[in-house]
Amino acid sequence: MENKKQIFKQIKSKYFPLIKSLQTGLLLITGLAGYMSARCPVLNISTLLALTGSLLLSISGSTALNMWYDRDIDAKMPRTSNRPLSTGETKPREALIFGLFLSVIGISWALVLDPLYGVVVFAGLFFDVVVYTIWLKRRTAWSIVWGGISGGMPVLAGRVLGVGHIDWVGIALAMAVLFWIPTHILTFSLRYHEDYQAANIPTFPSVYNNQTTRLIIAVSSVLTALAMGLAAYGVGMTWGFLRLMAVLSIGLLALAVRSLTLPSERITFGLFKYASLYMLSSMLLLFAAGF
Amino acid sequence: MKKISALDRILLLATVLLAAYQIAGGMNGMEPLTIWFYTVSFGTLLVAGLLLIILGFEGLEIQAVVIVSTLIPLSLSLGLISEHLVEYTIPYLIICVVGFTAIVITRFSVTDRIATIILAVVHGIAGLIIFLLPIFLSIRGAMPAGFALVGLGAAVIGLGGLLLAFLKAGQPILSQKTILTLLPALIFLMTAAFVSGLSFS
After folding, report:
1. Which of B40, B55, B71, B107 to mutate to test the interface with A (most CBs of A within 10 A)?
2. Which residues of A touch B39 (CB under 8 A)?
3. I need a surface site. Which of A234, B40, B66, B144 has the fewest CB within 10 A?
4. ipTM score of the complex?
5. Radius of gyration of the CA atoms of chain B, in A
6. What is the mean pLDDT of each run of 10 residues along chain A (291 residues)?
7. The whole model's pTM is what?
């Protein structure tokens, strides 16, 4: 009994932080929403559970691999310096094996479930780990575009599993996430500008300036709202849901414009949080529209 | 400034969910114009609730809050007028646009005293319509008795508005801490009253 407790405690402190539960949870919800947007599969519980399991494992795996690769820069940034890989609580080899194990199981499960769905899930992992983290993150501020593309893959994968092919609604949903990522990441890089500088990571605030970054955030917020609205229309949402989505989008735009015209730390933080809530709410609406 | 508590956040989240319900499903069968007026009102309430949850009560210090929060009574009263006194919709819409413009202009260009008077007049007109019209229609039997809950909602937020107004005028009836403790509950009760009252529409 004591031994079991010890193992659980170890998993909680050594491995659980490697999967960034909030971020993984949000991406998983986008995948489920993409699936539910196909409007029929709610009756197919086994597929829904398999989607949840394979996506959760794949996203957690790719996040753990990112953490493993970025352990040196995490140690340099105050915000991330207490992560288990930075503190030495988790050994790099353990994190690598953990990440590879989750990824292989997740991708294999996805491929068995549906080959096209598996390919999209794999593309998400490949863009995130190889293209974004290993290749571009330390070279260019524009790496976030690839981060955005990989972020859009779970919702596209869910949609693909629901309808059986890649359609324009799935692309629009993925675009909405792609455009949302800059709003999310750039507000973060504005807030933790010094952290990223300490780790020598190029970000928009350091390569360009804060005002240009805020302009990009505002533009990407507009594009997020447009892509999400288009997708919601394509899914066939009722007018009531569309109105609600429009209200949430206007809130996002208003905050982005406010951040551009009267910038402050508080508004930047508010925009960062609101953007996450916006994505979560939009996905829950898509989810609800499936019933 | 008082820190926002978990209970405050729960009450505000309940407010947001009620407003979301009203926008998404609570206006079936109404005229498009009325739907849009109510959508603006409950939409502003929804976004304001989310921002309060995110930013805490410090969010109330943002200057635009005064302007944006005016949209709630103005558009709700417009919705009521367009639903029940259709012939007055355009004249009242003009009054609302003029009133709202006056609030925006006076916030940035004249003394606090004039800005406060304009704000009180515009809020007063809209508040009286939201308070009196549903009660009047219910008493006359033109609408079910439950519709009067909308008026009750107006009374609840009117109380909150009064407390805030006296606080801002430097003659507080209650301390700022007490007012901010009461505010999420008042906002929730107001929204619950509006949503339940409008369900009788």
Report:
1. B55
2. 243, 247
3. B144
4. 0.90
5. 16
6. 75 85 93 86 80 97 96 90 89 95 97 97 97 94 93 96 94 95 86 87 90 90 92 91 94 89 85 89 85 69
7. 0.86
